[in-house]
Design brief:
360 residues; disordered N terminus
Length: 360
């Protein structure tokens, strides 16, 4: 959660990415021709503490390079297109909404990372072939601007059903389901909630109620959403946004001075569970370095460090969860989920139908 990013935030870091420098865009520069360099390809919400990366480099003997490659959906698509001559050794950030696309296109080679047996069972995937390793989890949910709803004496929405009510007309901004991981997750959440037939009727109502669609999480959250620090600066006018359940803690932790309570809240009845994975790229130039990096991403050291960098939850049993997460951004108790096989069978057609219905 690039959350997800991230989310994840998973996309989730309010633009606080780039703790490591991105590599050049050419495959010659980005690939790990040097056996002492391991290259991680990721979406733009990758972040890690410098001292944690430095410790891995010292202990393993590998130098880490990071290539950030746009939104998660864009990054996955590019990785598939370049799989025969990959830009790096490990890809991080493919989530359960896009996992089958990566696996069906042969993006990864098998490797069972050390510590895989300590991953919480509900987050595991591809257990027979071990082509991917779960790294983090979070929930894609609608966030709301507390100040707006207080000033307008309006109760914030709590559920998908609420979002189509007249009192919330022209208030919601979401991401394009065809290009953005949280946008796709929100679409899948509605498919899980309303079923194969009902989700389209729901989106017709949402469109009639003035939902706005933008290309990316960064644009939706940091430009259009009135409740985020970035949105305030950009004079965003939408008090509802598709983001992550862990976005409110980020708004508290990175504020100066820190507020006593989070300025944003979560509509807990709109959440969809996201799990992000990493894998050893097929044709990786440094597969041994890639394996060492995957082991590290699942280590307790990295799993403990990850939440306050990417604002997602760890998947390893016993990993530490910050108190601020429990206070300002607890995990949704009953998020919507979909079987990976159902996502694989329906995702492309759902996105095609969604695009025709919502964008045209």
């Amino acid at each position: 959660m690039s959350i997800t990013k991230k989310v994840g935030v998973l996309a989730v870091g309010l633009g606080m990415v780039g703790t490591l420098a991105a590599c050049g865009s050419s495959s010659d520069d980005a690939g790990s021709a040097d056996s002492k360099t391991v290259t991680l390809v990721s979406h733009d919400s990758w972040a890690a503490s410098k001292d944690v990366i430095a410790a891995f480099e010292k202990n393993s003997g590998y130098k880490v390079k990071v290539l950030e490659d746009g939104d998660a959906g864009q990054a996955v698509n590019k990785a598939v297109l370049t799989k025969d001559n990959p830009q790096g050794d490990v890809f991080f950030g493919v989530d359960n909404t896009l996992l089958s696309r990566a696996l069906d296109n042969g993006l990864f080679q098998p490797y069972e990372a050390k510590g895989s047996d300590l991953v919480v069972p509900k987050y595991r995937a591809d257990q027979d072939k071990h082509r991917v390793t779960p790294i983090d989890t979070g929930e894609i949910c609608v966030n709301y601007d507390k100040a707006y709803f207080g000033e307008h004496d309006l109760t914030p929405p709590k559920s998908f059903d609420d979002l189509v009510k007249p009192e919330y007309k022209d208030l919601l901004v979401t991401e394009n389901a065809g290009s953005s991981s949280p946008g796709l997750g929100f679409l899948l959440g509605t498919a899980a909630k309303y079923g194969d037939e009902g989700w389209q009727d729901y989106w017709k109502k949402l469109k009639d109620n003035g939902v706005k669609v933008v290309d990316s999480w960064e644009q939706a959250y940091n430009e259009e959403f009135s409740g985020s620090s970035g949105g305030k600066k950009a004079k965003g006018d939408r008090p509802l946004v598709v983001s992550y359940a862990s976005s409110p803690p980020a708004e508290v932790i990175y504020a100066d001075p820190q507020p006593a309570t989070a300025p944003t809240g979560v509509a807990t009845g709109t959440c969809f569970r996201q799990v992000e994975y990493a894998g050893l790229l097929s044709n990786a130039k440094n597969p041994e370095g890639g394996k060492a990096l995957l082991d590290f991403l699942l280590s307790k050291t990295f799993q403990d460090d990850m939440p306050l960098n990417m604002f997602v939850y760890p998947v390893r049993e016993g990993a530490q969860i910050p108190q601020s997460f429990a206070k300002y951004g607890p995990q949704a108790k009953d998020p919507e989920t979909l079987d990976p096989a159902k996502i694989a069978d329906n995702r492309d057609q759902w996105v095609k139908s969604w695009t025709s219905l919502v964008l045209k």
